[in-house]
Specification:
Blueprint: E1 7-12, E2 23-24, E3 30-35, H1 38-42, E4 54-58, E5 65-69, H2 74-79, E6 84-90, E7 104-107, E8 115-119, H3 122-131, E9 136-138, H4 152-165, H5 168-176, H6 181-194
Parallel strand pairs: 5-9
Antiparallel strand pairs: 1-6, 2-3, 3-7, 4-5, 6-8
Helix pairs in contact: 4-5, 4-6
Length: 195
Amino acid sequence: MPRTPNRVYHSSQKQGLKKISPHKSTHGHNWVYATLDMVMTAAFLGTKGGDFTCAVGRDSNTDKPYICERFKGAFDLRYDGVKGSIYVLPDENFMREQTLWQEEVVAEGAVEPLAEIKVDNAKQYLLKLEKSGKLNIKYYPEKIAGIPRDDSDLVKRVVVWSQKFGDEILERVKEYHPHLLSRVKKALKEEEQVK
């Protein structure tokens, strides 16, 4: 995994931050979230739709970060015109293996950035990273890193998320993947019968 020693990276759509403060996330903790890899962090400059628009991860074949569209136009929807910054942070207070994603590190208190990389348009920035060979971008219907063609991974995630976050998750399915709604409802019903 390419990384700079003693540095981690945090992206935000807010520029000019002098301090990165913890916030409560889906994990239920108040943490500052960062990644070990600047390119991976760049993939989170745009957040619209989260996993419903683009899958983000690391390709085990190339060891490069990737962004994979979940439907046609999702890359532009998530990143085009998005302004933000990548903040370079000291890694001394960050803990590993606190979340299920090995790319992610967390800190309990506020962190002062060492540097800020301003980004005027996340799409253009990511395309430059791809052109320089540091990032893989896959456009729908292409898939990468074992993402199933039938989107069964999204169906499984929605079942887990809907138990945690309720009906708002089903609204997101309707918005981004209406073709999966019947499969999601069937999976939720099967899950209820198991309990």
